[in-house]
Amino acid sequence: MAQTIYVLNGPNLNLLGTREPEIYGRATLADVEKLCAETAAGFGLIAVCRQSNHEGQLIDWIHQARSEKVAGLVINAGGYTHTSIALHDALVGVQIPTVEVHVSNVFAREDFRHHSFIAKAAFASLCGFGIDGYRLAITGLAAKLGASATA
User: Residue 45: which domain range?
Assistant: First the structure.
């Protein structure tokens, strides 16, 4: 039976493709979700992609991941990365292997973006690869889970 992973996207990621394309590129959230589904399938995984502009909804999905025995998480918490102790605590609390991902290189941007509350709850963090960071995150998560690429 295929293992499920959640790909969670936070605030403003629904605007990918139109919001500051010089920073985030022209790819849309639909493009991200298609990339995630295809990448996960290549490892025999199922990617469930969700996006919310609400912190509490993201936390509820993290808790749901635990109750549904989801194998792993990929999270782009958007601006909540730099502000949300609650997301950090939820991730630590569920003890599910997690990869943090960001489309832009947060360290080449404003100083406030240089701190991540999510990073300490994740086994890996990726930034600056555009939406390809999601492919890299799922590939790394698959390796952590012991999932092999399917032919």
Answer: 3-145
- Burial of residue 97 (number of CB atoms within 10 Å: 0-12, 13-18, 19+): middle
Residue 150, in any domain of the structure: no
94-135: per-residue pLDDT in tens? 999 999 999 988 866 778 778 899 999 999 999 999 999 999
Residues designated as active site: 24, 102
Q: What is the pLDDT of residues 18-59, one digit of tens each?
A: 988 888 889 999 999 999 999 999 999 999 999 999 999 999
CA 65, CA 23: separation in Å to the nearest integer?
A: 31
CA–chain centroid gap for 117, Å, is 14
Binding residues for substrate: 76, 82, 89, 103-104, 113
DSSP letter (8 states) at residue 147: P
Question: How many structural domains does the chain have?
Answer: 1
Binding residues: 76, 82, 89, 103-104, 113
List, in order, residues 6 or more apart from 147 with CB less than 8 Å away.
3, 43, 44, 45
